[in-house]
Amino acid sequence: MDNSAIRSAEKGAHWLDELSGIPDEQPPIPAEITQIKQQQAHEWPAPGEIGGRWDRGEFPIDALPETIKQAVLDHQKDNRQPLPLIVSSALATVSLAVQGLTDVGRDREKGLSGPVSLFFLTIAESGERKSRADSAFNEAVKNWEKAEIKNRIDDHKRQKSAHEVWQAKTAGIKSDIKKLAGKAATADADAAQKIEDMQQELAALDVSEPKIDPLPDLFYSEGTAEAIAAHLGEGWPSASVCTAEGGTLIGSRAMSAESAIVFMAMLNVFWDGGSWKPRRKTVSAPPVSGIRLTASIMVQRLIMDKLLEAGSREIGLLARALITEPVSTMGTRFIKDRPPLAPGDLGFSRSGVLSQFESRIENILKQPLNTNEAGELNLPITWLSHEAWQVWRKYHNDIERELAPMGELALLKDAASKSADNAARIAACLQVFETGNYGNDTEISADYMERGCVIARWYLNEALVFFGKGFEPEDERNAKLLSQWLVNEAPNKSRDGEPIMVDRKMTLRNILWVGPHSLRNTKTRDAALATLADSEVSHLRLFKIGKQKWLELNPQLFENKSVYKHDSKSRNESQQLRDSWGK
Fold first, then answer.
1. Is residue 387 part of a domain?
2. Which end of the chain has fewer surrounding CB within 10 Å, N or C?
3. What is the CA angle 14-15-21, rounded to 5?
C-alpha cells in the first residue's frame, strides 16, 4: 500500500482536526492492516502515564507500637487482607477501648481538648474480608463484654424489677388522680384532699426513681440514628458503629437521603463529643450527651458515590473520618500446602502476638468508667507534654500552610483541617494502649505524638488520592476510561458477527457504537483520543486508510495493562504479595 496514506499525529488534536468531516462508515478490514503492524511495531515508545498526580504510599507500619504492629502483620500473614484494612480494624478496637477512659488535650493554654474516638471509613468491594479482621481484633472486647454481662446480670435484673414496681406505682397514682379529678371539680372536699395527697406522693416517687445500671453493649451494626442514639443515651456510654456492610447501615435503598444525612450528622456530633437530640415523631426524646463513639465502616465504591451525592462531604463526616481505599488482595490469597496435623494436634490456636494485643485491650476495658449521676461520661483529660505540643504544632502549621490557594491540600480543606485533631487522638490511643497511663497527671510524650502525626498524614494522603480522582480534568478521566476499554474490552467485542478490533487496530467509529457510554459523542471521544495520541502518552496512533479513520494501540499496553500511578501501585503490591505468600 501507499505509506503516504498512513499519517500518524505528533499531537492527537491536530490530527483529529484534519480528519473532521470525513465520514465514519464501518469498512471491511483491509489487508494492509497486517502490513502496518509489520512496518511500525518496533517504533512504539513505552506508554506514558495519564495524569498520575494522585499517588499513594505504603502504610507506615513502623509508626505503630510494636504490639499493634506485630498483631497486624501476623493477621495479614494468615489472612492476606489489605494492610490498611487490617490497621483500621486494629486501631478502631484501640479507640473503642480507650475512648471511655480519657479525653485528649491538644493545647492546654487555649483549653483545646476533645474525645480520642476515631472514625474509620474503608472503601472496598465485598469479599475483602473486613469482617474477619474486625472479628480478630474485637475478640477481646467481645469476651470482656460477655464476662461483664454475666457478672452484672443478677443486679441488673433486680434493678429492673424495682424500676417496674416504681413504674406501676407511678401509673396507679396518676390513674387515681384522673378518676378523682371530676369529683374535685364539683367541689368535693374529700376528693380534692385525696388528689393533693397523691400529688405529694407522686412528687416523692419522681425523685426516687430506681436506677438501672446498663449492661455493656459496645457494638452497633444496624439501626437508625434515633435508635442508636437512644440506646447510647440509656445504655453503655462507650460504643462503636462497626460493620463490613456499611451500605446496609447508611446507604441502603430503604434509608432515604434525609435519613442518611441525619445518621451522618449524628456521627459528626459524637465525633466532636457533643450533645445530640434524636428526632422522634411520637415522643420528645431527651438529648444524648456524655457518650463516646468509635466508627469502623466499610462501604463499596458504589455506595460511597451515593453518600457523596447525599452530601456526606458537605455535612463534614468525610472530613472527620480516616479514609482508605486499599489495594485489593483478591486473586492473591492462595492457600499454601502443608503437612497433615500430627496426632493430638488440635489445629488452630491464636498467635502469641495477637494474644498480647488482646491482653492489653482487656486490661484497658477493666478500668472503671467515670460517669455522673445521669450515667454520662465525665472524663479526665490527658494533655500533650510541651515537647509533644511542639510536634503537634509543627504538624498543624505544616498542614495549614498547604491549605493556601496553590498548596497541595487546597482542594482538601475539609479533611486537612481535621487532620491535626486526628493526629492527637491517635497519639493518645497509642500511648494509653501501650502504657496504660492516662488522666490529668499523665502527659502524652513527643514519641507518641510523632507516631500520631505520621499515621494521620498517611490517612490524609489516602483522602487526597480518593478525592483527587474527582479533581482530575474531565479529559484525563475520559482518556483513562477509553484506554482501559480499548485494552480490556474492545478486543473481545464484535458487531454484526465481526470483531471490531484486529491486530490492535479498529475504526474510530466503533467507539461511538459500542464504547463507554460517556464517550459516545464525537467531541468527547476526540478529546480523549487526542490525549492518548499525545507523544508523551503514546497509548495509540491515529491514521487513516482512504477516508476511514483508524487507531492502533501500543502493543506494550497489553504487556502492562496498567500505566497509571495508583494502578501500577496496585500491581506492584499484588506481585509482592504473591512473592511473599506463594501459591
1. yes
2. C
3. 105
